[in-house]
Amino acid sequence: MQLSKSELIINADQSIYHLNLRPTDIAQTIITVGDPDRVSDVSAHFDTIEIKKAKREFVTHTGTMNGKRLSVISTGIGTDNIDIVLNELDALVNIDFSSRSVKPIKTSLDIVRIGTSGAIQPTIPIDSFLISTYAIGFDSLLHFYKSDHIQHSEVQEAFKKHTHWNPHKSTPYVVKYNLQLGEKLQSNKVIQGFTATNVGFYGPQGRKLRLQTEDENLNAKLASFEYQGKQITNLEMETSGIYGLATLLGHRAASMNCILANRSTGEFSKNPQKAVDQLIAYTLERLTN
Length: 289
Prior knowledge:
By secondary structure, the chain is of the alpha/beta class.
C-alpha cells in the first residue's frame, strides 16, 4: 500500500520531514540526547564524522568510532518529540521513499538514550549511572497506538491503587528495555532502575515555584511504591516513549541516565558536565568495544 503525501512527508531533497535526514544518513546504532548542544559532546569521541545536519531542535551527527558506525541525534525534551524521532527513524530504514511503501524485510535499530535524571531514592548517589530496566510513563503517547500487548498491566494497576491516581490524568503505562542491548551496557558501574517518565519538569515532577501541585505527596508515593521487588528509582522525560515505540516498531532500546539530582536528599551534582561526559564515554566504550 502506498502511503499518502500527508502521512509520509518527504522534503524536496528526499529527506524525512522533521529530522531532515535521508536513509543513508543514519547508522543502525543511534544515540539520542535531549539537548542539541550535547550532540557535539558525543560526536567529539568519534574517530570520523561524515554527516552533520540540523533542523529545529533535531541535530544529527553520523560517524565512526573504533570501526563502528554511529549516529547521535538530539530529540529535544518530552515524549511528544520522541513520537516524531522514533517514527521518522523507523521510516528511514523501513519505508521505501521511492514507492512510498513499507519494506517487506525490516531493519532493527539499536537506540540508546544518554540523558540526565533525578533520583527519588536516598540510596542512589549523585553522579551515578543508572540504566532503566523498566519505565512507567505518565504521558499518554502509547495509548494512541495499539500497545496493550507490550504494557505490564499488573504493575500499572498496582501503581494506580498505591498512588490513588487521579483519573483526570493519563493512565500510567509500564514498558521495559531490550534485555540484549541492556546487557551490553551494564557493569558494576551501573545501577539497574525503574524510571518514571514525566510530562513536565516542574509540577509533574513535584516542583513548586508559584503554582501548587494537584498532589503534593506524589514523589513520596512514587518512592514508596514497590511491586515484586521493583521500586521507582528516578524521574526524567523521554524513556517510556522510547521504550514503547521502539518495542512496537521492532527496534532495541535502552536508556542510560546520569543522576545529577537526588530529590529525596536535596542534593545536586557539583560538576554536572563532568558527570555527563563520563556517562557518554562509558556508553560509547560499551557500544563500540
